[in-house]
Every structure is written in structure tokens, then in C-alpha cells.
Amino acid sequence: MRTLYAAMRDRLRCYASDESEPGGMSHASTRLEGHRIECLAASRAAPERVFVGTFEDGLYRTRGQATEPGEREFERLETDFVSEAVTALAVSPRDPNVVYAGTEPSRVYRSADGGDTWTHLEGLTDLPSADEWAFPPRPHTHHVRWLEVDPFDPDRLYVGIEAGAFVLSPDGGETWRDRPEGSRRDNHTLATHGDREGRIYTAAGDGYAVSDDGGDSWRRPQDGLGHTYCWGLAVDPADPDAVIVSSASGARTAHTAERADSHVYRRLGDEPWERLEGRGLPTGKGVVRAVFETTDANGVVYALHNRGLFRSEDFGDSWDAIDTGWGEGLEAQAPCGLVALSD
């Protein structure tokens, strides 16, 4: 049994998925309804603990045992963050007790006890580029959009600022490196791969990029990528050179259903990007940018957007809808995150 946590803008949908049948699902529930959800994170090493960041009410974490798959309750954590807007979360792949949180305005915090206590990692906003950071809908401020911990070096932390910079820390937040050569400015999703040391990927508002030296320098393979405002990103667990992204022509057609026109592209090795159409995953007019999640299974990837939750077993060649009883209210929302865990 696999539990899927799908974060939409005003609620968290929780699904128990029977993977013996395509689209199989035995149970669904809703949590944190009415909250403005920004992000979520969990560790496969500790699937009982899921973190959710909200914009107006801080950080939440699961508590107690599940009465049914996906039926865990959430409790609000007391923190001393700079604001209640928790915009990014990450759990260390080496130690599920090590959790990172990012906020608006841009700050990064670290917990070594599973979220009970937090330490501010100082110095981020002292970087030279910080005066240029600004989030266009709220240009007086900015936020941490993504946090990623290196699977080979747990002290190496990657941070995407929306909008303004990719920064990294080689030493757990003691020092920061600002805007490495070739890095993107408007990073939305970062990813690493457990079989490729030094590899990091970004889906950014100013395009896709990939690094092979832990973020110190970047390449920008764009051939075939017809829509370069990138948002979601996933890498095949079996192949660090197989990548899927969601993208649009710009922010205007990415996030709002009434004017959305988003697409999904896949890149295999050094081949040009291929737009995935007619594969069972809705794209195009009325479809907001998708977010993705992989599992430990080779080729398996989930996609979430305003038309529902979908699963592919061949890394995007074909997709099956997971029967979630998708409501009309969800068709107007953009997703904020997706986590797949085995119970």
C-alpha cells in the first residue's frame, strides 16, 4: 500500500493507493482544509511523519498513528520563524530527524529532532545578490521556494530563492555561496539523484539547468523545450539522465486555471526535449503546471495538477488517472506539492 499526499492550494488530499492495479485507490481523505498550503515534505525512512508548510499559519506535522491509510491528523508546531509563511521544506535523505524549512521573507531554519526545535541558519540575506531578490506578485519581499539536501553530502544544502538566486551551503549553513556560474535566478524545483554524485537539476522560471559538480557550475540544455517557464521536475530513479519537467510560456499561463496553458516535456540522455502529448496526462489549455513525485520503483512517476492525480510506470510514455473523485473546487487550483510514501 502506498500513501500519497497531494497538496492543493487550500487543502491536503491524502490517498491510499493500491498499486496492483493502474489507478487503484482504496481510501481518500482531506486534511488542513481552508489553510493556504505552500509546501510539504517527508522521508521514506520515516513515513509516519509528514510536514506541511502554510502561508498564514506556520508549520504542521502529523501526529499519532493512522486509523486508516492516509488518515493521520496534523498538529501545528510552535516555531520562532521570522514569519508564519513557510514556503519550502526538506528532510535529509541521510537522517529523517534533520529537517529544513524556508520562509517568506527568505530565511532558512534547521531542526535536528524531527521538527521539535529549530535553529536559524544565518547569513543568507547578507549575500551580495540579496538586494536584488524580489517576488513579482509581492515585489517588496521574496521567499525560499525550494530546499534540497545533497544525498552524498548531508551538509551540502541547495536553496532556490524566488526570485533572485540559486545559493548553496557546503557546510550545513555555516557559509553560503551566491549565484554560482551559470545558475538560474528563478528556481522553482531542485532535484538530486542517488546514483549520480554531484548532479543537481533545476526547473526555473528562466529555464532548465543541470550541474555535475554540486552546483558550482551549470549547463543549460534547452533544445526542444518549447515552453521555458519551468516548474515541476522529476528524475527517473533508474536513470539520472531521464528528466521530466512541467512548463508554460510564462507565469501568467502556468498557475491560474482560467488562463492556463501548460505542458510536460521529457529529456532522455543528450536527446532534445520531447513534449509529451496524448499519453493520458492532460496538458494544454486549462491545465496548470504539474508537480511530480517518484518512488523507489524504476520508471514510476506521479503527476498532480488541477485535472487530477496521474501515474506512469514507464516514465511518461503512458499515464493512468488515479480515481480520486476530483471535485470542481480543485479544478481551479494549482498544486503545491506531492509526496508518495510506503506504509
TrEMBL record:
<dbReference type="GO" id="GO:0010411">
    <property type="term" value="P:xyloglucan metabolic process"/>
</dbReference>
<dbReference type="InterPro" id="IPR015943">
    <property type="entry name" value="WD40/YVTN_repeat-like_dom_sf"/>
</dbReference>
<feature type="compositionally biased region" description="Basic and acidic residues">
    <location>
        <begin position="174"/>
        <end position="191"/>
    </location>
</feature>
<dbReference type="InterPro" id="IPR052025">
    <property type="entry name" value="Xyloglucanase_GH74"/>
</dbReference>
<feature type="region of interest" description="Disordered">
    <location>
        <begin position="172"/>
        <end position="191"/>
    </location>
</feature>
<protein>
    <recommendedName>
        <fullName>BNR repeat-containing glycosyl hydrolase</fullName>
    </recommendedName>
</protein>
